[in-house]
């Protein structure tokens, strides 16, 4: 009997050693995601991130099981809570959307086209960039807009410096990695007499000493146009006939998981005081079922959304997107 027990225990130990541990599906998904996004954690952080990932995946799966105009998906932010995400990627200081009013009217003799996409009009929109762990979205919306405006006028598409704005534009109510607004950044460029190129003043993703060299200025602003608040029709006119435009809106937790389709939210506010993210509208369109949308360039890299872009519902001031739109009039030397 004793020999039988010993034999049984021996077989059991062998079986335990030879049989791989069964990894729960959530943890297997998490490890696959870690490999995909080159994530490495300490043991303690690993279990915290696993928990965040699991919670986010449940939100994503629940949303995708419903009937919505947009789909959610895992991305580089899927191990973060929205509170962490907001701290690192969104404007953290209140914005008031005030700046000198520019005088520029869209003159048109015919109706606006059904759809517009400036990416298809030649070499006018720079590739999607990545702001990293810095609330500098406002600088990318600014450079993206000025890059396109200059390209339309000069025929040359030159990437411009976000870092100069992060480091140097404080006197115009901008706060580096803590936030700012494109309208105020355009004002800075106008009165500062120029913005350097990305090549001459490269992005670091953290605030440093201002290193602007006037002799290296490559883009200039003659005036700033702030589209009348809540006038989304004027935004459409500008994008249809003139150029891409910057706008700000309020990001809430579900937008962090956006993958594709026309984004809308019933959770966000529609007022200027709640905007926390700045982006670039490069066009607009409509789905076959009639849902209108903006085509928007983001600054979270190409792994997020639709290769770095998203669509957001048009005509409803969705999340306050019509409260803070602006674009520069270039000064060409």
Automatic annotation (TrEMBL):
GO MF annotation, one: cysteine-type peptidase activity
Protein name, per record: Pro-cathepsin H-like
InterPro entries: Papain-like_cys_pep_sf (IPR038765), Pept_asp_AS (IPR025661), Pept_cys_AS (IPR000169), Pept_his_AS (IPR025660), Peptidase_C1A (IPR013128), Peptidase_C1A_C (IPR000668), Peptidase_C1A_papain-like (IPR039417), Prot_inhib_I29 (IPR013201)
Coiled-coil region: none
Key words, A-Z: Disulfide bond, Hydrolase, Protease, Signal, Thiol protease, Zymogen
Family membership noted in the UniProt record: Belongs to the peptidase C1 family.
Superkingdom: Eukaryota
Keyword presence, Signal: yes
Pfam families, A to Z: Inhibitor_I29, Peptidase_C1
PANTHER family: CYSTEINE PROTEASE FAMILY C1-RELATED (PTHR12411)
GO BP term, example: proteolysis
